[in-house]
Amino acid sequence: HFFQRLLEFPAVKGIVAFFLFILRLMFGPVFRPIYSTVIMLWLADTVTGFYHARANPKIRPESRKMYHGLVKLAVYFFLLFLGYQCSLTTLTMSITAFIEGGIIVTEIYSILENAQKISKLKGRKNQLLNKLMSIIQGKVDALGDQFIKKENDK
Q1: DSSP assignment, residue 152?
Q2: DSSP secondary structure string, 68-110?
Q3: What is the spatial distance between Cα 7 and Cα 16, in angstroms, rounded to a whole number?
Q4: 10 Å Cβ neighbour count for 17?
Q5: SS3 147
Q6: Residue 91 to residues 34, 85, 86, Cα–Cα distance (Å)
Q7: Tell me, what DSSP letter sits at residue 29?
Q8: 33-49 b/e (C-beta count within 10 Å ≥ 16 → b)
Q9: Is the pTM higher than 0.90?
Q10: To which H or E segment does residue 12 belong?
Q11: pLDDT digits (tens, 9 = 90+) for 90-135
Q12: φ and ψ at 148, to 5 degrees?
């Protein structure tokens, strides 16, 4: 009853309409699956990070870390906005895919990293997770080495 009455209040309708207008202006009229994917991955990263902080007696959950998570989400929304703007032009559509892929890979890596920390904290040996993390880290290191080599050759 309270929320129904609240939604009937004209000021609330105006605020919600303005918020939806800004979202539509930034991300277009269609809610693309990438937006919900990023939100779900960010939530999973936040939950696993918070669980690790609560389960580890050496770490105390801090509001500063939660603030950094919100800043990260704001940066993701800004990057998704840039990606949407790039998708409006055929020439720059590949930038959209690069931005979206980068965000997804970053969040998945962060979730796996949190899961690895939790499994180590609980004393469980998760060979699949350890192998997956070493493969990912090896690929990242190899890409970095290739980039450094190209820069040194110039």
Answers
A1: H
A2: HHHHHHHHHHHHHHHHHHHHTSGGGHHHHHHHHHHHHHHHHHH
A3: 9
A4: 10
A5: helix
A6: 20, 12, 8
A7: S
A8: ebbeebeebbebbbebb
A9: no
A10: helix 10-27
A11: 888 889 888 998 899 889 888 998 898 888 888 888 788 878 887 7
A12: -65, -40
